[in-house]
Design goal:
- The chain has two helices and 29 strands.
- By secondary structure, the chain is mainly beta.
- It starts with 5 loop residues before the first helix and ends with a strand.
């Protein structure tokens, strides 16, 4: 999942107050610093039935922290696992993390059962209760690896011809996956493990990184970065129903069937809430201000709460000094010093800001 440039995040942090909201029923109920190291983070996933929240941390001190959905206190840990996220199948009692190799664990004791070698670069994921399978998403081929929840065996792979970001299931044998680099949504037959079609979103937007589904009415909500909008379309045939504005830097979406609301989280510090009044009527209901970088989310279906994760970052270290002006002969041709794009050695982005120790937090949003 792409990061928001540091200069943009810093500017937004100054421009937006934390834990406030526009008029509407939702607000930030609390923000809890849970620590867990200064490693990276990506997805957050709620297991509402067992009242657990899974947060994967990567890099130095990598682990999967397990937190209570009721108190946000840590209740478990899977140490030494560096992944993007984790989800569980309540029927089998097994969980899976998109580490490399994939980590299969016991959802009650959090003990590792085994690791599963896969190809590609595990990133996003979906656990489908329809046939108890865990889908590993990868920007590199194979785009989808299908794992049996019961024993962790690999059942097959699926080629999507694009980079998958988020997937949604209707629970009836259909899976939908947004393809970030193709301005499209792939349609998968879960039983056949085969892509059966694509819905083109290019007339409205692209760079779509969040996907949610109203399974009852077969409506998809695709959160896109190119135009900062939510493209709403039929899951049956792909025809576009609406196109509404969201914040900058979306990286996740979810739908609450109890309230008929779609949620999109953005790295600019906004949570956009879209109300579905009918299968043909949609409107932005509210924009809640959240901490900057809280760009991924999950829904606790029992409480209706939205949970996000974020951290604070110190100012980035000073960039290295620019190289001396080359003599005229060098300036007339050849690559710049370092052999890459301007802006740093080899075309790099310069030093990254360090996470403020102990600042990693879980943000709870609700009515």
């Amino acid at each position: 999942m792409p990061r928001i440039p540091l200069f943009l995040a810093a500017a937004l942090a100054l421009a937006l107050p934390l834990a406030t909201s526009a008029q509407g029923p939702y607000k930030v109920l609390k923000t809890v610093k849970v620590g867990g190291g200064e490693g990276g983070f990506d997805y957050v996933t709620a297991d509402s039935d067992n009242r657990n929240l899974y947060v994967a941390r990567s890099g130095q001190g990598a682990h999967i922290g397990v937190y209570s959905l009721d108190t946000l206190a840590q209740v478990g840990d899977i140490p030494g696992v560096s992944g993007h996220g984790a989800a569980v199948d309540d029927s089998t009692g097994h969980g899976f993390a998109t580490s490399r190799p994939i980590t299969m664990f016991d959802a009650r004791t959090f003990a590792v059962i085994k690791t599963i070698d896969v190809q590609g670069n595990p990133d996003g994921y979906l656990n489908d209760p329809f046939n108890h399978r865990f889908y590993v998403l990868s920007h590199q081929a194979p785009n989808v690896t299908v794992i049996d929840d019961k024993d962790g065996s690999i059942l097959g792979t699926i080629d999507l011809g694009g980079a998958p970001e988020q997937a949604a299931t209707d629970g009836k044998g259909h899976i939908y996956v947004d393809l970030e680099d193709k301005s499209a949504i792939a349609v998968i037959d879960a039983a056949a493990m085969k892509m059966t079609g694509k819905y083109d979103l290019s007339s409205k937007s692209g760079g779509c990184a969040g996907l949610a589904l109203d399974a009852k009415n077969n409506i998809l909500f695709s959160a896109c970065r190119d135009k900062n909008d939510m493209v709403i379309l039929s899951a049956t045939d792909g025809h576009i129903l609406a196109d509404l504005p969201i914040g900058v830097g979306c990286d996740g979406a979810t739908f609450n069937p109890a309230t008929m609301e779609a949620f999109s989280s953005q790295g600019d510090g906004t949570l956009t809430i879209i109300k579905e009044s009918s299968p043909t009527s949609f409107a932005v209901e509210q924009t809640v201000t959240t901490p900057v970088r809280a760009k991924t989310l999950t829904l606790d279906t029992k409480t209706g709460h939205i949970l996000l994760i974020t951290a604070e970052y110190a100012a980035p270290a000073a960039a290295p000094a620019a190289p001396p002006t080359p003599p005229p002969a060098a300036a007339a041709g050849g690559p710049p010093p370092g052999g890459g794009r301007p802006g740093g050695p080899g075309g790099g982005r310069g030093p990254r800001a360090p996470m403020v120790p102990g600042s990693f937090s879980i943000v709870l949003v609700g009515k």
